[in-house]
Design brief:
Chain A contains ten helices and ten strands. Chain A has 236 residues and is α/β, with parallel strands linked by helices. In chain A, the strands form two sheets. A six-stranded mixed beta sheet of chain A has the order 6-7-8-3-9-10, sandwiched between helices. A four-stranded antiparallel beta sheet of chain A has the order 2-1-4-5, with helices on one face. Chain A has a domain of 164 residues: Rossmann fold (3-Layer(aba) Sandwich), CATH 3.40.50. In chain A, 37% of the residues lie in helices and 27% in strands. Chain A is globular. In chain A, helix 3 runs parallel beside helix 6. Chain B is mainly alpha-helical and 316 residues long. Chain B has eleven helices and two strands, in the order H-H-H-H-E-E-H-H-H-H-H-H-H. The chains are: A alpha/beta (236), B mainly alpha (316). At the A-B interface, helix 2 and helix 3 of A face helix 6 and helix 7 of B.
Chain lengths: 236, 316
Amino acid sequence: MALLELENLSINYGAIQAVRNLSLEVNEGEVVTLIGANGAGKTTTLRAVSRLLKLREGAIRFDGVDITNRPSHAVVRLGIAQSPEGRQVLARQSIQDNLLLGAYVRNDRQAIRDDISRMYKLFPRLEERKTQLAGTLSGGEQQMLAIARAMMSRPRLLLLDEPSLGLAPLIILEIFSIIRNLNAEGVSILLVEQNAKLAMQNSNRTYVLEAGQITFSGQSQELLSDERVLHAYLGA
Amino acid sequence: MGTAQIIQNLLNGISIGSVYAIFALGYTLVFSILGIINFAHGAVFTLGAYFTYTLTVGQFGINGLLSGVSLDTQLPFAASIIVGSIFAGFVGVLLERLAFKPLRTRGADSLLALVSSLGVALVLVNVIQYLVGAEIYTFPQEVYGDIKPAIMFEVAGEIIVIRTVQVIIFAVCMVVLAILGYIISRTKAGKALQAVAENQITASLLGISVDRIILFTFFLSGFLGGLAGTLVGTSFGIAGPYFGVSYGLKGLAVIVLGGLGSIPGAVLGGMVIGLAEAFVPPDYSAYKEAVAFAFLFVVLLVRPQGLLGRSLIQKV
């Protein structure tokens, strides 16, 4: 049984069909990438998993539990965390408080403190600035904070929406090395990325989304040399 | 104006100003979460005063449906003011469920919520009139126990008189402000409240139930409104069902003056307007109400975002 199962998802924005008949799975321990052009429905899919959107049709199951009708905050408690597109840190709160709020669903105070120190080891730049308001951070630092904050709920599944967006190449490499580390610790990851090549190089499987539908999918390594992917997404 | 007169005015001003502050905070909390003004806040102010009155005195007046009805028990004043304000807090919760949530879930424009709360305010005022009549209710002097009605001292050869009620009002407001400050900045619920105020979607992605935080906010708001009503009521009496209307408007002046959505702004705004009113010469006391709005007008010309408000131009 897969950790996350999306079955025949259809989502409308008014009259526009954003996602059509989408089925997808993330197995325990996997990194799965969702690639596609702007407006293909990648962010919509992640938002649906976090239950921020109404489905027209379909079902979402997490660890065998139907979460289709659960509210967003309940889904976090079950073990799904999201680092949203555009980072969305709480700009008026300190970095420390952003991390504490990331652990909102937990009550184990000592373990929360340990996890915060762990995040600071992973992202030393956040520790240097821990009392600063998150709004004063650079784009790359905000991205790190968004990922660290999502990790603070101790998720089993981490949804990452465009973690490389607008960042300098060196920072992007840093972010991806952190993603690999998190996965090595046992967190399953569903990754949405514009930077298709990097995302595929760092994932087990890839789904290609076109105009709201999955057109093909497979092992990332194989798709990296697939003609269709090369032309459309890897600029070869 | 002599030194003694200035001190007298200052003391009067900070006493009433502290009530304006906690009352206005009720508006501010709801505004910071939902971005709307709850026009029924003035009616909650009135209700809170009646709740406390009823719990303390144990009976209703001579008019209205409840005339002659009396409760089996009477609570000590200190207990009734807490219980009465808690009731007012639940009125706030009810308000959210009846006037705001149904519109919000349908995605209605926030202007509609404003009209809806105005409607609820009118209903509440009329229900109060129907139940307890339009007479003025005065708290009996003995609610504060066996204390002197006033404190007197001398400055520069002149006598300054402070009513004990004013001192108590100020003390209660300061304690409430301290507790509220602690709740908002130090507790988990308070942090969640701040997160919801900043971004509801992000908050729910962190596992915060936005719906519950909104209810919590309305409870706090109603509690503060009801408490403010009680405090003013003990000082000047409960002036009938329309008691809260003029305070409701003044509260709006306070939050706009302080800066919409700013908690320190509401406190500062309350104090400034309280003091401004206190310094209105006795000959012009009929125009006291106008002072709040004149002040507001002048400040907004210079600082449209209010004294402590965030700049209206947002960084994108």
